[in-house]
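Renewal narrative, Specific Aim 1. Our central claim is that a sequence can be written position by position from structural information alone. The example that follows is taken directly from our test logs and has not been curated for this report. It begins with the structure tokens describing the chain, in the order in which they were read.
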């Protein structure tokens, strides 16, 4: 007899991008922000390392919810803070989709969704994106939503980086009987967002993170907004003290430094456009990106795996998956201009070596 639940024994865990401790590595594999938190945020965090750390944090991160509510125009009761956006996604599965109930997600998208479904013992419904990684909300696809309790949609999509057409996304929301979570982890780099859909539909939750645009991946702060009823359900199943004192304080300080972070977002988007153009010039196929990464396919005869391995040998990490539909591509997080310059030089060398 095994000690482990059968469901857990059979499943594979989520595989995060590598976080090696090698010095001098150019890390373009986990979509972190290449710029640090603002000096003011760091100063506030340093100042908060004191005896109060013996006390538990505010269990519902209320000051942060009030600030986010003011910025985005929602009642703080409609907002929940998580230990990263991943925590929020996990809470949604716990609250809205029971064992053997249906959980749907588009594919290819964030590889955490099937893992969360597996942990719960939920029945997975994979909704294929088309060859352009867009939703084609035709009848056969929509019929798959029958009886689904929870749908995850990544907007903008990952790893393709593209913006999903809003009309198609709305058809999915209207057709789904269950809760639809729009995972906007990368939305701060996009020219649109879907927060208004929360007010329009009572089954929509939008989830966001401080990890990307706000340089806070190491502190783990995410949030979600939805109807008071849905958010109250998430509050019931969350850990009591799910966000640390320092994380709450740092996230609050971050929101006071809006201009600093918007400048960084602008820089990253400009570097993204230059990176895409430079890769296209080298013969790569590059999907238009609304995120802080690009999803791209090297020119024949170079394979994505060869390119990934070649870059790795030169101490540059990008992300490659040995998975259906995406193994011909690699995902490159946007770094500083200097990092991207080195990445492009290394890419040229790897392509030349592969062609020899
Ligand atoms: N959603 C998507 C699509 C992501 O790529 C990520 C980051 N891996 C997350 C959510 C989770 O972000 P966080 O760091 O806030 O947990």
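The sequence written for that structure reads:
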């Amino acid at each position: 007899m095994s000690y482990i639940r059968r469901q857990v024994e059979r499943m594979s865990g989520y595989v995060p991008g590598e976080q090696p401790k090698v010095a001098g590595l150019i890390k373009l594999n986990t979509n972190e922000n290449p710029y640090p938190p603002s000096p003011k945020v760091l100063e506030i965090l340093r100042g908060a390392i004191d005896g109060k750390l013996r006390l538990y944090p505010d269990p519902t991160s209320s000051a942060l919810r009030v600030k986010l509510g003011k910025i985005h125009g929602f009642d703080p009761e409609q907002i929940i803070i998580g230990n990263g956006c991943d925590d929020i996604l996990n809470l949604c599965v716990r609250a809205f989709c029971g064992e053997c109930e249906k959980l749907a997600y588009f594919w290819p998208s964030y590889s955490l969704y099937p893992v969360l479904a597996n942990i719960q013992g939920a029945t997975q419904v994979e909704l294929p994106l088309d060859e352009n990684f867009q939703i084609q909300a035709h009848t056969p696809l929509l019929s798959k939503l029958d009886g689904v309790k929870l749908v995850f949609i990544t907007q903008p999509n990952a790893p393709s980086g593209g913006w999903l057409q809003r009309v198609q996304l709305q058809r999915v929301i209207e057709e789904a009987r269950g809760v639809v979570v729009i995972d906007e982890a990368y939305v701060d780099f996009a020219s649109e967002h879907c927060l208004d859909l929360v007010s329009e539909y009572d089954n929509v939750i939008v989830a966001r993170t401080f990890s990307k645009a706000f340089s806070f991946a190491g502190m783990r702060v995410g949030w979600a907004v939805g109807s008071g009823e849905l958010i109250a359900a998430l509050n019931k199943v969350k850990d009591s003290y799910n966000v640390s004192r320092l994380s709450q304080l740092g996230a609050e300080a971050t929101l006071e430094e809006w201009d600093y972070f918007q400048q960084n977002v602008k820089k990253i988007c400009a570097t993204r456009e230059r990176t895409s153009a430079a890769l296209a010039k080298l013969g790569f196929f590059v999907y238009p990106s609304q995120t802080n990464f690009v999803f791209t396919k090297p020119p024949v005869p170079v394979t994505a795996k060869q390119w990934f391995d070649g870059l790795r040998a030169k101490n540059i990490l990008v992300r490659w998956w040995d998975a259906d539909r995406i193994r011909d591509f690699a995902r490159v997080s946007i770094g500083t201009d200097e990092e991207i310059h080195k990445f492009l030089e290394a890419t040229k060398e790897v392509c030349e070596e592969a062609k020899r």
